[in-house]
Structures are given as structure tokens and as C-alpha cells.
Fold this sequence. Notes:
Oligomer: single chain
Structural class: alpha+beta
Number of helices: 14
Largest sheet: 10 strands, mixed
Amino acid sequence: MVDYIKLFDKIIEFINWDTLKHTAFKLNTDNKVSKFFTKDHLKSMIYHHISQKDSLRDLSFGISMSSKLKETVASVSLSTLSYHNNKRNYEVFLPVLYELINKVLSTGSVNESLKRFGSIKLIDSTTISMSLNLYQWALFRSTKAGVKIHTRFDLNKGIPDAFVVTNAVEHDKTAMDSLIDSRHCIYVFDKGYLDYEKFDQYTKDEKYFVTRLKHNAVVTEVEDLKISYSYERLLDVGTKIICDKIVKLGSKYTYQTKQEYRLIKIVDKTGKELTFITNIDDLLSEEIAFLYKKRWEIELFFKWIKQNLKFKTFVGRSLNSVMIQIITGIMTFAVFKLIEPFIQTKTTLIEIKRAIKANLFEIYEADKFNWSYIFNSS
Length: 378
């Protein structure tokens, strides 16, 4: 007898349901629940991100009207879905999310151009605007509301491995201590995270970083270094390295760094001058500039999730429902990253997502299933 499986069921096989069951019991999220359990909630939110339904009503209607989906996800009314989005503790989904992230981090290969640097973490934030009338708890300007997702992105494996959600009014620096917590890896972040006292502490703790210096920064030059280049070109044609120096940062009247730092200045192909600061002394001038250039990868990640998952609008109005949507969105991205190595043809993550969306309820022979099949039938 031949067994068949829906593509959606194959997707959610990546989820560790035992972990979710254990956490649901620990946090009591299924107490006095007669239907729409925590597992159904997670399945419905993954479906929501893949299908990109516009509202809670559309999500509820889509689940209720699809006979194929109801075989996997329990049918749910609008009121029930709304209630659990607001009341079910969002933390119940975090252990599952971090298990998926760790799976991605432990699989796949690292780009050859990055291997020499070891672990590289990009840090940045993205703001999601909201209606002030609906999300007054997220007020950050007189006429706007929003949340900010502060993210640490593992460049080697292409996935966020930590994030902090705050009101959009919070400065980026408020999340630094939560995201810069490990020794012996390189953190790359922009000038919004400048904090000279923290830089000294990072250096003392052997936390390495590359960042950009503000144009009006006070700098005391200590020593000129010889500009050094890689044997292979790492920067765009037309980009020139102007100097590599040892400096101290800040003023004696406010705070001057106790540690000394490298300052590398470049002029890019458009004529724009950029100044980088780092506490790494064993990399080439060009390599430092190259690492900062890779910061663009986290911007591409933010753009990807906003365009291909449900991050621009939220189906609930409470902080809890917003957190559930953010967590399950990153979870869905992690599942796509786990699927990526199984595709036998060269393809992009957005093509994988489109093929999955187009074939979400297609039936395949379970024993002969191959992820490349989704491109043959889409």
C-alpha cells in the first residue's frame, strides 16, 4: 500500500512537536482548552506566513474552507483565533524556534570567502510601523506606533540567531548587551550602536567588532599603519583605502577610550568617504572594510521577511499577538533555510517559498518524496 503526504505536512515535520508539547505543559497554555491547542495555533501561524493572508478573518476563513488544511490544522473560528493570539503566552513557541535555528546553524556549508574570519554576527534593527489607533501601547511618535526588532544575524549560515523586540522609540543601543554576549566572534554593526565605554569593555572581554564611525567623532591619532590588501579583491572596483591608523576615541572632557583601536578610512566608487573602527589587529585593512560591507546581508534579510512573510501587518492588536507573529515568522524562515540544502537544483530562497506556496496542499508519495518535486509541479 502506497502512503501519501501533503506538502504542508512535510514542511511541519521540521518542527519538534515533543518540545512544543513539553513547553505547553510547563507554561499551561492548553489548560481548559477544548479545541485549538497550542500545536494547532502554531500550524495555523505557519500557514499564515506561507499563504500571506491579509487578516485574522482571512486566516480563519482560509482554514475553515480548506478541507485539505483541516486534515492538519483544526478548524477555528475568528473569535477563538483572536482569543488565543491575545492570551496564549508567546514564550511557548520560543524553544521550538531556537531548536530550528540551531539546526540551521549546524547544517550546510560556509561561504569560502568567510571561512578565514570564523563566526561573524551582524547586528541591526528594523522598525515595523503600525496604526496608532490600533496599537496605542506601541506609541513612538505623536502620530505613529511601531515596534523595533533588534536582530543578531549569523552571516556564515544566513539566519538570525537572537532577537529582541522593543517599542520603536527605543534606541538601538538598548539591545546591545543582549545581542553581544559571546567571546571570540566578530560583531558587525552600524554607527547607531556607538558606545565608547562599551567598546572598551568588549575589548577587555575579547568580543571583537567592526563598526562605522560618525563624521564628527573626536579621534586622537596614535600611530600610522601600512595599508594592507588581500591577495584576492574583496572590495568593489573603484573603492580606495585611504588610511589605516591606531587611534583613541572620544574626548577627555566626556569619555576617551582606555583601549586603542584601528581606524580604516575608505572612499567608495561613488566618492563617499566611510570610516571604520575595529578592535581587531590581525586582519588586513581590506578585510576590515570587506566585513563592514557584508553588513548589507542583514538588510536583505529584513527586506526578505517583509516581502515574503507576514511582517508588515499584524493579525492581532496586543503585544502578545505581535510577538507570536514575529516568532512564528522567523520560525517559518528557519524551515525554508532547512529545506534549501535538499533542493537539488540551484535556486533562491524566494523561489523555494513561491514553489511551496503554490504546492502547499499537493499530495506526494511519502517514500519517494524529494524536495525538488515542488519545482516540477509548480
